[in-house]
Amino acid sequence: MTDFVGAVDQGTTSTRFMIFDHSGNEVGRHQLEHQQILPRAGWVEHNPLEIWERTQTVVRTALNTHNLAAPDLAALGITNQRETTVVWNRHTGRPYYNAIVWQDTRTDRIATALERDGRGEVIRRKAGLPPATYFSAGKIQWILENVDGVRAAAERGEAVFGTTDTWLLWHLTGGTDGGAHVTDPTNASRTMLMNLETLDWDDELLSFFDIPRAMLPRIVASSDPHAYGSTLPHGPFGGPVRITGDLGDQQAATVGQVCFAPGEAKNTYGTGNFMLLNTGTDIVRSEAGLLTTVCYHFAGSAPVYALEGSIAVTGSAVQWLRDQLKIISNAAQSENLARQVDDNGGVYFVPAFSGLFAPYWRSDARGAIVGLSRYNTDAHIARATLEAICYQSRDVAEAMAQDSGVALECLKVDGGVTVNELCMQLQADILGVPVSRPVVAETTALGAAYAAGLAVGFWRDTDELRENWNESRRWQPSWSPQQRATGYAAWRKAVHRTLNWIEV
């Protein structure tokens, strides 16, 4: 048996390739950022060709650095930023437009119109999602309506759509020469076009956005030994590697955190925050502003569903301190700066740069820093930024408890922000429950590797994966109940100040 499994993790700000051994330990990686294209306020784009070029480079570099080649990999998994929308020509491989990123808000009028005329309730019932700028369907509609020639090309069967997993899978398996045009249910369930019960594209939902069905990829299981194909000899792997796993990034992190039992939850801290609660084979309809989504679908088994709370801006708020305010020079400095003060000094920062996602779903909201006085310093703003990450997660945790009837007992955390010890302590304080970080904090790539490895027998079953999970650090809450309640009440007051800022 070959010794390793690879995972391509195509994220919002960077692409990386990681290699794992049978114990789930990282053997090697390489990572490169790509450009964030911001044509106007609220618009966020990526260059799909740059993403494909970065993917090839990180694969080649990681393999070469560790003297590995295609025969050393038992399988390959893909994980990706979800909802981000690419439309390209199947004959030339050229995108018709930049990828429209999940954070982009240009489709707010499309989402508002769906809500106003009642179609929003159909989307909630069938797709488990509220009409929102976040999801892919409105982005596809915008490209069809605003980019010359795309509508006609789609009707001729030339223009095809995919999230970034589909874009990379197509290239890795041949591109214009027979590349596989596929996705998995975790990504398809983020489009507003897939029926949660059938795990197939829904004609009524397609009609809402006037999207030709022929544009869409085939939906196959998240972990499957045969559905995706293999990499090509002339590609970045230099030989055939079986592609057997595909998961949207947050579902991949849930698998990486081995949340395989109903009631188990994780929270990933990246560009945004994403908390998922495994609900088993039951489709749980949210009444509290959460999303109902596919958690994973392993071939030969029933699909597993989840409730998700998606938060648009958390780690990217720290980037904003660095890049726009320039009060820190790197993300790690946010912790040192915030530690200079004992509390937030009455300052609350609601980073609603792209509106508010779960549980509010308000595209009219915009960011606000409130409670400022002459006493406050940049350290208070840094601490308020870390607290904003944690308060937004509490909003989601409260909604999950309301929908599921199960109170959170411990929160498993992962992602880049978890290296910030102060932020994780604040998360425990604000939630009032312990926070647990695993030894392998980059669980998104690990989950994609697990999905791929399970499909080929590299790992026997999910019980074997559980044996790989080990805790690195646990934070216990230290705030009093009164301190927690007072802080949360002020946070909710600050959130209210951000609403109705934009006319939609």
TrEMBL record:
Summarize where glycerol binds, as residue positions: R82, E83, Y134, D249, Q250
Q: Where does sn-glycerol 3-phosphate bind?
A: T12, R82, E83, Y134, D249
Task: Give the record's pathway.
Answer: Polyol metabolism; glycerol degradation via glycerol kinase pathway; sn-glycerol 3-phosphate from glycerol: step 1/1
Q: Specify whether 4Fe-4S is a keyword of the entry.
A: no
- InterPro entries to which the protein is assigned, alphabetical: ATPase_NBD, Carb_kinase_FGGY, Carb_kinase_FGGY_CS, FGGY_C, FGGY_N, Glycerol_kin
What positions belong to coiled-coil segments?
A: none
How is the activity of this protein regulated? Inhibited by fructose 1,6-bisphosphate (FBP).
* Residues annotated as binding ATP: T12, T13, S14, T271, G315, Q319, G416
GO biological-process terms attached to the record: glycerol catabolic process; glycerol-3-phosphate metabolic process
Kinase recorded as keyword? yes
* GO MF term list: ATP binding; glycerol kinase activity
Cellular component terms per the entry's GO annotation: cytosol
Q: Which Gene3D superfamilies match?
A: 3.30.420.40
- Database matches in PROSITE patterns: FGGY_KINASES_1, FGGY_KINASES_2
The record's catalysed reaction(s) read: glycerol + ATP = sn-glycerol 3-phosphate + ADP + H(+)
Entry EC number(s): 2.7.1.30
Q: Which Pfam families match?
A: FGGY_C, FGGY_N
Q: Looking at the record's lineage, which domain of life comes first?
A: Bacteria
- Give UniProt keywords alphabetically: ATP-binding, Glycerol metabolism, Kinase, Nucleotide-binding, Transferase
Q: Which residues bind ADP?
A: T12, R16, T271, G315, G416, N420
Family membership:
Belongs to the FGGY kinase family.
Q: What does this protein do?
A: Key enzyme in the regulation of glycerol uptake and metabolism. Catalyzes the phosphorylation of glycerol to yield sn-glycerol 3-phosphate.
Official protein name in the record: Glycerol kinase
